[in-house]
Amino acid sequence: GVIGIGIAATVTGIVVGGIAAALARKK
User: Fold this and answer.
1) Burial of 15 (0-12, 13-18, 19+ CB in 10 A)
2) Structure pTM?
3) What parts of the sequence cross the membrane (predicted)?
4) Is the pLDDT of residue 27 over 90?
């Protein structure tokens, strides 16, 4: 449902943000 989509979007955002932060630290 909508809640599931919201949770999925949140998790995806956290993962993407974590990857971006990791790449930023490497640079």
Assistant:
1) exposed
2) 0.61
3) 6-24
4) no
Q: Smallest Cα–Cα separation from 11: which of 26, 25, 22, 3?
A: 3
Residue 22: alpha-carbon gap to chain centroid = 12
Summarised one tens digit per residue, pLDDT across range 3-26 is: 999 999 999 999 999 999 999 998
Summarize the chain as % helix, strand, coil (round to 5).
95, 0, 5
Q: Which tokens belong to 5?
A: 């989509």
